[in-house]
């Protein structure tokens, strides 16, 4: 369970350090707009996304079991966080995140890192696609510049409300959102090493400001961003509240554990490395405890940012530390500039993030899977969208494990009739 940074620093040299610095700055420019957008979509203030990226991102790299893992707020948490804030308030989210951190620390100490192998892959694919659908639909209001008094949380009711508000369409907002999406895709293909996300969002946001377009920005909707980290503080703890929030805490811990270990496995293939799953769980636990102490959001390893780090030349956890430090410097020095970022541009960024989360390049392969896996994926997807993530994961894992036992030809139980 030794942190990977202790291993990698043994033969650390100047060339590796320079590569880590360049990669850390690059991935910070990708993480910055994403962290703001994820926080807003989660129902929190944009500053919470920056706090999470700084505090949790630093701890995940410092204590983690992967060479190149980048941590912070991720799209997978948007649905969960939004629901907790709506039902329990932001203080409830902070306490649930703190509890999830403690759960992950215990899981790491008990060496539960390998248990991810028990979660059926169709379940992971199903709830990931379901989350992507929810994220994309949640951004339609900002993308189209629609005016709604209140957006329902339930999926089909939300679609109905968005359709009814179609007459409030803001053409300027839609144009900014679409141009941002086109720029992101174009820059990704033209210069994959360039942090195209921040370039695209900054460019279209600058057009909004210079042309005086009637488009919402972070500043117009949320006010000024803070220029420093808040002081750490323990969340208010009482036994009754902890009991009430325990299911949410387990859900956060499950998502953080699964996504971080999946991200670490992807990173292993990219750098021909081997992560330490139990150290990774402990790092996720510490990161969520730390994020909660600073009033931040749940955090985990981010697959897209980790891949960006590797492509930019990051080879050790130092790149992740530089990424967190870079975002902190931006917060201290240039927070007012981030306030000019346009809401439709961030919405376009999140819609593309949702599209990438769903991994469309794998859809054709799903059609070749066994029928039971297809049904399991579809079941988890539908339950994620129309009910909630906890139900979807619970049902999906239970059905998946039952199918796995059936494939292994486990004989049925020999029930003996009771003597009455």
From TrEMBL:
Keyword Membrane part of the UniProt annotation: yes
Lineage: superkingdom: Bacteria
Transmembrane segments: 21-41, 47-63, 70-86, 92-112, 124-149, 169-187, 194-215, 249-267, 325-355, 375-403
Listed InterPro entries: SLC26A/SulP_dom, SLC26A/SulP_fam
Domain named SLC26A/SulP transporter: residues: 17-374
Keyword Transmembrane helix recorded: yes
Pfam families: Sulfate_transp
Record's GO cellular component terms: membrane
GO biological process terms on file: transmembrane transport
Chief site of localization: membrane
Location of this chain's protein in the cell: Membrane
Its membrane topology: Multi-pass membrane protein
Keywords in alphabetical order: Membrane, Transmembrane, Transmembrane helix
Protein's UniProt name: Dicarboxylic acid uptake system A
Organism: Roseovarius indicus
Gene assigned in the entry: dauA_1
